[in-house]
Amino acid sequence: MQACSTTLCVLLLLIMFVSAIPHVDYNRWVVQEDWKYTDLSSAIEAIPYAMWFYLGVEELPLASEETIEPAKNVPRGLLMCISTLTVLSFGTAVFSSLISPGAAAMADVSAPLVTSFQTLYGTGATTTFFKWMTVIALCSSPNSYVFFMGQLLFAIARDGYYPKFLAYEHPRRGTPVGAVLFGTISCVLIAVILHYAIGDDDLGSVLINLTLLGALISYIFQLLSFVYLRYRQPNRPRPYRSPFGLAGAFVGLLLCGISIFAILYTSVTDTIFLASIVVTVLVFVAGSMYFFRVVLPKIQNNTLGSPVTTKDMNENLLSARSQVLISTGA
């Protein structure tokens, strides 16, 4: 099901790209729309939405335990995902902007792909067919996020850092039931609270900034871990080495810093976006308090409850699942 919906999603985008080529009008939708770079502030505010194209690709290594020959196939999958996302993101941005009704109008529609099909095929049966196919294709996104959310929470809980109920698996199917339920309920609660706190007009944008901020902080820690391992353990066996090396890690850190600055800048220029900062801070404060009050004493007393001892964990650095994550970047 997941493979089918993902394939359908890619096919629909490719159909839109090819169909849009005869309708591209740079003069009408760029020159006459007076698209000139005049405002650095607007460019900075747009950075988080550009990042939204690529959010989530870093979670692919969490599927290592379900992957055949993960040391070989996970890096391949990552490269394919990055390549696919790059092509599709640029294609979507370019073709959606250069056909009717143009980028300015696209900014106000709730379904840009459907609007593009309406431009290309009218409002008849063909567009209706593509509309329903788009609904089916969109299932690939929430399914992926829920799957990886469960895998991540389960892996951390299994190593003893989160409460044990998050490591509960379905006895027959092996689904991380505790992690999926807890993560889903938490996300829904945050969305509902923000709905009543700030309303619906900016809710989507605030949630995007909230998600990106948490992801960027995670990226920074991963990149710092990569740099640390390269310097402290340069001869450590690695099934896969990053083609970008330390230079790529430092560039990644720079980009993360720029993106976080963009989110903070947006929050300063429009106070409604401060909600994303507040929620992020509260989550990290709660997590830090839990770590220092509950987890750290267990580590110090060697009672963490991990499948391996604290000493072995320090020597091995990470569990098998997390090791694949690092190896794909290191």
From TrEMBL:
One of its GO terms (molecular function) is transmembrane transporter activity. It is a multi-pass membrane protein. It is found in: Cell membrane. Pfam families: AA_permease_2. Keywords: Cell membrane, Membrane, Signal, Transmembrane, Transmembrane helix. The chain crosses the membrane at residues 78-99, 129-156, 177-198, 210-231, 243-265, 271-292. Residues 1-20 form the signal peptide. GO terms for cellular component: plasma membrane. InterPro entries: AA/rel_permease1, APC_superfamily. This is Amino acid permease/ SLC12A domain-containing protein. It comes from Phytophthora fragariae.
